[in-house]
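At this stage, I put together one protein's amino acid sequence and its backbone structure tokens, which the following lines show:
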Amino acid sequence: MKWSGFLVAAVFAALTFGLWAYVNRPTAEPPWPARVQGMAFSPFQAGQDPFVQALPDEQQIDSDLRLLAGKVTAVRSYSTLKSLGRIPELAARYDLKVTVGAWLDRRLATNDKEVAAAIELARQHPNVIRLVIGNEAILRGDLTVAQLTQQLDRVREAVAQPVSTAEPWHVWLKYPELVEHVDYLAVHLLPYWEGIPVDRAIEYVVSNMEQLHRAYPSKPIVIAEVGWPSDGRTRGGAVASTSNQAMFLRRFLDLARREGYVYYLMEAFDQPWKARYQGAVEAYWGVYDVYRQPKFAFVEPIVRIPQWQTLAAVSVAISTVILALLYIHSLALGTRGRSLLAVVVYGVATTLVWIIYDYSRRYLTVSSILIGTLLILGMLGVIAVLITEALEWAEARWGKPRKRPFDLSAIDMPVLPKVSIHVPAFNEPPEMLIDTLDALAALDYPDYEVIVVDNNTPDLATWRPVEEHCRTLGERFKFYHVAPLKGFKAGALNYALKHTATDARVVAVIDSDYKVEPHWLRTLVPAFADDNLAIVQSPQDYRDAEESAFKAMCYAEYRGFFHIGMVVRNERNAIIQHGTMTLVRHSALTRVGGWAEWCITEDAELGLRLFEHGYEAQYLPATYGRGLMPETFIDYKKQRFRWAYGAVQILRAHADVLLSSDARLTKGQRYHFIAGWLPWMMDGLNLVFNLFALVWSAAMIVAPHRFDPPLMMFSVLPLALFAFKLAKLAHLYASRVGANIRQTLAAALAGLALSHVVSVAVVQGLLTRSQPFFRTPKGKQPHALIEGFAAARAETAWMVVLVLAAVGLTGQYTIAPGLVVGIPEELKAPDVSLWVAVLLIQAIPHAASLVMSLISALSLPARWLGRPPMSTGVPAATPFRAQDSAD
């Protein structure tokens, strides 16, 4: 690694550490008072839950009150039944006053018991200073105003202490008739729930207190709940965090001292049990956590993450290790290439550290651990794809080649060896195959044979004309019709291999639709002067890109792989062999056992097997033959299904070599075969993710208070990957492929349109052993419009469901209009909005499938995309230009 690499790494390490420091700069706030007037008091411990009657015992309640003694003047309880009815008696031991609360809901008989117990406690214990009968019962809709006032009047007649019910400020303004039945207003002021940013939360408290004083000047006001959560969903401008909780509470306590407010902080201890019924945020309102430890500094300046130096050091260390590995094993990169890698690596490492830290601080259950683990594993997959995409971008644009450019003109081969050209065919249009054979007959090469193997074509009228034409072309051309013949294309190629001339030194394979250039063999065969070279590969290219917009879009999508990915892979002797326009050393092919009939992508599998036997391959990004593209979108999908399913077959069969340090493959070869297919593997996981996303979104719509959206960073990473891949494609298509903006967008659309079929292929590849070989038909007529919809019916269904989920969430998570003064009427929770964005992004590939299918059916003109850049065969091909690697 050059000194510039160290410099780039050091600069980004400093920037990363500086960013952590900036985000966590200390904020001075008013100190916590020596004693707080009051706190809401729910003494439930970890694992306890009132809904299943798992209640704290007397000893636990006593321990909590002892902890608060000397720090708090009074506590507010919420129920009078069972052990919770002991709170006034136990509080008296520590000179704590109590506001007794009676819980009221739809269970009217239980309500009567709560009220009766509250009356008894008020009569028995002098430290009971007031009563709260019902907690947000009107807000929840559990009781009518008439039902509630009946209970209030009952208690007021029975006790000497002041009596009220607790409701948010706006409920008191909405129901003035309720005020007539209370001695004071027990008001909840919780700015978080109304989306108020923490910097405006004190203003919110003052404003609403003034409204209540103006509306009811004769009634005392007690702030029965006031607080801020330390974790949970972001709501409007309100961010739930420990630092914001500390900031708000310390500011409020200073305000309360100056204004003389009577208040109860919400609340003494975190209550994890609430998350199961009211959403995750309800678990995090405590000044102390569920283990009774203070959650923030009471006097010192507030820091967002007190342990930030450790986390920053960890993120820098992880980034440095990953970046060093990339720099050491990548091509020689210019400063811009190294900087791109540094931006991605430091960004994802910091994100990873922050997410794991944030998640680890939550109250985790078995289900949340399971879900969190799956999300983190998915996130690691996204990060892996991001890094591999970044490395390919950097190497393709700013990499300096390690291998000497392949100069064909410098090769001296006085005697050109015999070549056996194999053409497998099944049910091909005879006119098309005859054109292919005529192009082979025109080859400018001294010694070659052509073996055509027609396997299993049932119609005599299809294969007989080809057989007759081979006879007219002379003894070089041999035709075999074999039926039955197992093994699909690989079976046909193995049959051809058995009938190959014994003196042939090179085997060439082309598809039945390819017209080769006359100089194809004469230009490329001399490369086999290198005895260790087993494969010479040139790109798949096509001659029908100008027939329709659909084919022009397919053509644009194909070119990215052949002029970007394959060029980079060639630098590490790790190309994907594809089964047309390929030349293979005959002896090497025989030595490794021929073509794999168990694999539906026998070409890529053979290439990997040859690498495992120590052979070399060479790729030249120049065209020496052109074929035909799929005629319809459904055929396009079948072709990509075969490629993706075959990739999974290969990964499963060669896992012992690919996933180990087996010396049969170099590190670079293992990297490219894993990283190259990783995006397809992630597409497979994406299918599972979409199922999870829909189920989770449905739960959020049906039970919004119980199901929160995933952490924002879990949403940010997929969005970042989507944007990053689009930026990479736009840059490399312009700089490497020579495409215009329309062709670049077309390539992006075509690639996205295949995401679903790839995901299905990957999942099926993991669950099954074999699939039928999907031949890509050529020369078919495009489908009618109705068939265009039918070809993308599965993708359309996914698109509709994902969009409906996004629309449902958008409607569900809108804060009530007019509830809060000074903020927009439709203020949505940003983490929900981000999750909605994820759902819509997930719908884009499915929408792209429908668009591609319709474009295929409508036969739109190709001229809309502009003339495609065409490659030509040249005697030498240099994969990188010198100016591209300059700093």
Summary: The first helix runs from residue 3 to 23.
